[in-house]
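Sequence in, structure out. Go.
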Amino acid sequence: MKKFTLSLKMFFFLLLSMVFMAFAASIALDEDTAFIQKMLADHYDDTQEASLLKKYELNVTNTGFCRYKRYFSSGKVEYFSFNLKKFKDIDYLGSDKQGRLYLHTKGEDVIVQTYNDRKNGDIDSMAAYMVIPLKNMEPQDLIAISERLVKTNAQLLVQK
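Output:
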């Protein structure tokens, strides 16, 4: 009987531990995606295309998607999206004052959709990277974004 109760206690302890670990991973994922979202939003440079761009939306969701939508004055809309499971690495071209962040994926995993384009019409295609204009980026900011993207990628791959 003692052996049975010991086994039962161990089973409940392991079950409880697994439940806590599952919630801890979810909380860490939420924190990482919120951090990435905040950094990209805080450093977004709307002056690089100010004459062409009417507004933009930039979202990093807790389900692991990075979405970037640009609305142009002409009515044209460009939409880019990829799952952070497909994230490979980042490149930053520019200076600490102004530049472009390239989010590379493992293959052609970025969904690119164009709406209301008077020249080419509506287009659906795929790309290997997404470009986001940024300003006032210090090297430690880029390192922090890169580390969080890698961490988020690993957490999402584990959740499969």
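Check: The first helix runs from residue 2 to 43. The mean pLDDT is 83.
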